[in-house]
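Page 42, continued from yesterday. The earlier attempt failed because a stray header line got pasted into the input along with the sequence. Redoing it now with the clean sequence only.
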Amino acid sequence: MSILAVVVTFFYVSFFGEIGVILAVFMGVLIFIIGLIVTRLFDTQTVQITNYIVRRLASHKVLRDFIMHHL
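This time it went through. Structure tokens are written below.
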């Protein structure tokens, strides 16, 4: 969700040159709501991908430990 907010804000500021406080708050709320909707739509796929990654990492202890401790 934060990446979506950054991209939208970046393009808005790049196009118009500035952003006001009221508009920034409105955009933040709107992007937050859209992000929640998107995450609910793709919840099943996200869980499936996460389970797949966990199963794959179960047999690679060194890689799993590196990801858990450094990323």
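Notes: The chain has a mean pLDDT of 85.
Reminder to self: strip header lines before submitting.
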